[in-house]
Design brief:
four-stranded antiparallel beta sheet; binds flavin-adenine dinucleotide; 10 strands; four-stranded mixed beta sheet; 10 helices; alpha+beta
């Protein structure tokens, strides 16, 4: 049964209906096979792009869907309920457009943004390095100023959509310390840029995560986004929005696990009754439902603050923390509800549990979210 959502406009209701329809027709039939084999779902991103689902939170002026963030996130949630990896890729694409949209010059936006938002191209966000994940300010990839632009040299890691993306929002060092990082928009196919083979991951296998090597790659100066040295604040500002995307994806995944668990518990019998009628198991399901509803409430609260132009950084970290911890707990409990069958690949709940784990890790681990929240409480 579809989630009974509170949506701000009739247009948003239509959009959610369209999303569910596309998710049923385009995502659901392919998810199990692609996740088992690790095969990239060709055709899926063009289909989402053609439906306008890759650019929802951006203005119409640049080809976006002009939707409030709370609506965009609920679309992501619906996508994640069918295919978490695809929803993560969509969220990362949106994240990779954020720096150009927010910090680019009018000329840069006129030149590149419409192409990025049209849905024909997909983006990636390249901040992490092999030795620098949580401590992003320790990144080493260097952009050395030269005549007309920069020469980029160094290694990046953990790039969602790596090797498949059409553009890479890159963070590289133009100076020393945390104020010595700059942001660049790198087209795929740049000479000197190459990718490692996809990581063999626990989940989200159909969308590649790769390393990248920059070997003296030249980028013209016009490809720098924002001022030299502004990169880390650009990265963090984008991540506030991106974390809400991950919170929504985690909520969708948890909702799906709950739905599967409830359906199974209404069918499966033990001791002469359906297992949902054993209070001990009914309470497990009730706790799962409470966790899913709380996750949704926290990300919607942060999104509504963002839509109203209020500060939302702390709420974004709270949402990421609450929703991804909820997804881990709910998917683990879903396996429990299925008993022995939950531990097999005959049912999808074991995959949901594997997919939930990474949500506590990327876009700032949940320890880092606590750090952000604690610092805001301390006012530092
Ligand atoms: C599937 C996947 C996709 C990803 N996609 C992207 C992407 O598209 N773009 C991108 O840039 N990155 C991406 N990442 C990278 C991800 O953001 C990092 O893995 C994450 O930030 C953690 O960094 P790390 O792996 O280096 O762990 P580390 O930073 O080494 O942390 C290891 C452990 O120490 C803990 N820790 C570290 N510092 C502290 C502290 N100060 N206090 C308390 N605990 C701490 C962490 O919470 C963690 O538990 C992806 C990662 C994965 C697994």
């Amino acid at each position: 049964m579809p989630v009974d959502r509170m949506l701000p406009t009739p247009e948003a209701r239509d959009l959610l209906e369209l999303t569910r329809d596309i998710a049923d027709k385009v995502l659901e039939p392919r998810v199990a096979e692609c996740e088992k084999t690790g095969i990239f779902p060709d055709g899926v991103f063009p289909a989402l792009g053609a439906a306008g689902l890759l650019s929802l939170p951006y203005p119409e002026e640049f080809g976006g869907g002009a939707q409030p963030y709370e609506v965009y996130l609920q679309v992501l949630e619906e996508l994640a309920a069918r295919w978490a990896a695809v929803a993560v890729a969509v969220s990362v694409h949106s994240l990779s457009c954020h720096p150009l949209f927010t910090f680019g010059t009018d000329e840069q936006k006129q030149r590149w943004l419409a192409g990025m938002l049209s849905g024909e191209t997909i983006g990636a966000y390249s901040l992490s390095e092999p030795h620098a994940g949580s401590d992003a300010a320790a990144l080493r990839c260097r952009a050395t100023p030269v005549e007309g632009g920069y020469r980029i040299t160094g290694a990046k890691a953990w790039i969602t959509n790596g090797g498949r993306a059409d553009f890479y929002t890159l963070f590289a060092r133009t100076g020393e310390g945390s104020r010595g990082i700059s942001c660049f928009l790198v087209p795929a196919g740049t000479e000197g840029l190459s990718f490692g083979k996809p990581e063999e991951k626990m989940g989200l296998r159909a969308v590649p995560t790769t390393t990248a090597a920059y070997d003296d790659a030249f980028l013209p100066e016009e490809r720098r986004v924002g001022a030299e040295g502004q990169g880390l604040s650009i990265a963090f500002s984008a991540l506030d929005s991106g974390r809400l995307g991950i919170a929504a994806v985690a909520t969708g995944l948890a909702q799906r696990a709950l739905d599967e668990a409830v359906a199974y518990a209404k069918e499966r019998e033990a001791f002469g009754r359906h297992i949902i009628d054993h209070q001990g198991l009914g309470f497990v399901l009730a706790d799962m439902a409470a966790a899913v509803d709380s996750a949704r409430a926290t990300y919607l609260d942060a999104a509504r603050r963002r839509d109203a132009g209020l500060p939302y950084s702390r709420q974004a970290s709270v949402a990421k923390l609450v929703a991804t911890d909820a997804a881990m707990k709910v998917t683990t409990d879903a396996v429990q509800v299925f008993g022995g069958y939950g531990y097999t690949q005959d049912f999808p709940v074991e995959r949901y549990m594997r997919e939930a784990k990474v949500m506590q890790i990327f876009e700032g681990t949940n320890q880092i979210q606590r750090l952000v929240i604690a610092r805001q409480l301390a006012g530092t």
